[in-house]
């Protein structure tokens, strides 16, 4: 971040998610301005009130739906009207079970829109505004599921893989204009999205993920695995030869 905290604006997409709420609390304490974008206006209003109680400069709730591009421009216009450094954190995504998608292939469209194409289109529209200011950060939350297609969640994994590739190219592009792009790859996080999946390996909490994000932003990291153990784990998984991998149940 290149400006003082009171001149920071954060667009938070998917602001109703557990991790997004933890992130909102963390930036509210710095006195930043937050734009809370999501589908549930009642929840966004409650989050805005909570952020104001924590010392945020201002908190603006606004409708965002990754599947409805007509909701994008109003957010960008609102952000562009703010002075100082503009940032964006993307927590949008949906994860139907693979069994549900197998039973109803129409779920593929929404999964990819929520987790990849909707956020990518929004960031593509936002990019010129950030380039013009030659500063700011983008946090794009992907998943370790995007590192290799696995039998249990390959549609969700494909969406997150596409988003990670998009963020890599966006980082290459915007980095030439002073904008930092961080790709975050969490493993299982204790949130509403993972409820019902049972105990998962190396599960972490939303607050721990947010702390890792801020540390990675300070260090201008390109990619963050959280928890850190997922970096060696996924490195090994990506190296498994395909004939062997096809016989595995991971």
UniProtKB/TrEMBL annotation:
Stated family: Belongs to the short-chain dehydrogenases/reductases (SDR) family.
GO molecular function terms noted in the UniProt entry: oxidoreductase activity
Keyword entries, A-Z: Oxidoreductase
UniProt entry tagged with the keyword NAD: no
Keyword Oxidoreductase annotated: yes
Pfam families: adh_short
InterPro entries: NAD(P)-bd_dom_sf, SDR_fam
Protein name: Short-chain dehydrogenase/reductase SDR
One term under GO cellular component: membrane
SUPFAM superfamilies reported for this sequence: NAD(P)-binding Rossmann-fold domains (SSF51735)
The species this protein was found in: Octadecabacter arcticus 238
CDD domains documented for this protein: SDR_c (cd05233)
